[in-house]
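Hey,

The postdoc asked me to send both predictions to you directly instead of through the lab channel. I've kept everything plain text so nothing gets mangled by the mail client. Protein one:
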Amino acid sequence: MSSIADNIVDFKSRLPRGVTLVAVSKFHPVEAVRAAYNAGQRVFGESRAQEFVVKVKQLPDDICWHFIGHLQSNKVRAVVRAGVAMVESVDSKHLLELLEAEATAAGRTVDVLLEVRVAREETKTGFSTDELRDLLVGEFVRSLRSVRVRGLMAMASNVDDDAAVLGEFERVRSLFDDLRQDAMAWSTRFDTLSMGMSDDWHLAVQAGTTMVRIGSAIFGARI
């Protein structure tokens, strides 16, 4: 059985230049995160606020922490003050407002990705294409001072159909390129597209993602 360190090295060797690996450490112990860290990994993803806050206190300061799950309003302050670098799962204007307020109060700058609703499952959250266009051409995002909108995040449908998943990823990539033109009016750093997990990352890379979120393929099954 390969080790966490071996898995980190393997993934980094297979990812194209310019694609960032986010090691999704949610539900895994601090010791597992430290093993990945010792193998050179520095970007980690968590999805539960309480678990995230505990891990931050026990692990090295140079880790770049991403919050990748649905962020509840009452958890925003804790996540921001714990030192989150990027929230990948912003799915509403209200959440942007809360992040701006808490980051300003903490004297920090937080990067965010806007979640695109592309999957077929009704349980998936995120902005529609029209909502994203309205948000990015409006005055609101230009008024943000402590939050930087860096790009988009998407999760494909949970189906056993590579062609369908690839098609969804390609649509998001096309949307990202299109919205980038609108974003250039207020930002030169709309440069991040986060797509692909353990089962479909290769399809996301094929579609042109700049970031993948890999959990079980690195750390094994959840415990």
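Protein two:
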Amino acid sequence: MDTQELQRLKNKFDIIGNDAALNNALEIAVAVAPTDLTVLVSGESGVGKENIPQIIHQFSRRKNAKYLAVNCGAIPEGTINAELFGHEKGSFTGAIGERKGYFEEANGGTLFLDEIGELPKETQAMLLRVLQSGEYLKVGSSRVEKTDVRIVAATNVNLYHAVQQGRFREDLYYRLNAARIVMPSLRERKEDIYLLFRKFTSDFAQKYGLRKVSLSLDAISMLKNYRWPGNVRQLKNVAETVTALESRPVSSESDRIELDARTFAKYIPDEKDTLLPQIASPSSQSGGISDDDKRMVVKALLDLKNEVDSLQRRVEELEGGATKQLSAQTGDSARIDTPSASYDDAEWQEQAEDLSIKKTTGDLLDKALEKHGGNVKEAAQELGISERTVYRRLAEKKKSK
């Protein structure tokens, strides 16, 4: 694509930026669009992955058919098969009638599966069958259905690492990865950051009759040097908050206001490696879950997830070995050794840390749900995790009682 064509594409889909990696991702999307290749879009949360499947659909032969987007992480595990593939009347409690699934609804068009890494193993197997043969079964039915759907999937987790951990099917991973598009993080697009900030504050100011916000050179440097873990989504929230709290109504004298670094510093975190923004607001001390608690939860989920999974596998292996040992012994001599015979001090310390993390996460989840009146979606957004993760933790908590 030449420069003019690329700019027209950005204008059409409201994409801001001139970064080379961003341009490359857009060019690949246009190049693969006329084919039926399955596409996997990867990138951190908030980078704008949802633009890619829309571009692919609009430049494909399916552009006049349906385009459906599904957030796999927001659907409870118990209903996701019915949501994707449909169900027959009476197939489960609450199935009062036959229902079409997304694969049937999107037949002939494009189906965007976001947060594909959150799919349960059973659903992964059903998805693999659809990708290979276009066939699927509705929940509660033995009749094979056919569909012709173009799949574009997206993930903000390392699927290859999930394959190594046994959480994602290897055959499905390679099937999805026929064409891969990587969306760069915002910290990799430093020259685009101020362009995006000006766009967001300009749109917000125009909507509410406020002066546009610009930044001094020192404030721009601060804006670019922050690593933006929430990427474009986080930047937009900050830009709108800054405009709402620092700007004034447009007057005949001025339609713009400039902020210096000292003023702007209130709206971004002091620590460069923090995981969540600390936007200053009058209500920041008004109870609820503190920013420190949120950061602790997210750090626990991100930094210690691998260690937790590894520990769980070790425990399962040891339990399996103990069961075999018990089966091989008879009479009073049949005995399972205590954990102290199998774990050294370092391993027990790791297990204790794991339990502490789970308790802390559970407590904060309870606080979030209580704060939002049991609304799972709002609680998940506040904690920075998917709705599916919340449902899974609630199920684990209920099971442990």
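Summary for protein two, as requested: The beta strands are 39-42, 67-71, 110-114, 135-137, 144-146, 150-155, 179-182, 212-215, 256-259.

Thanks,
C.
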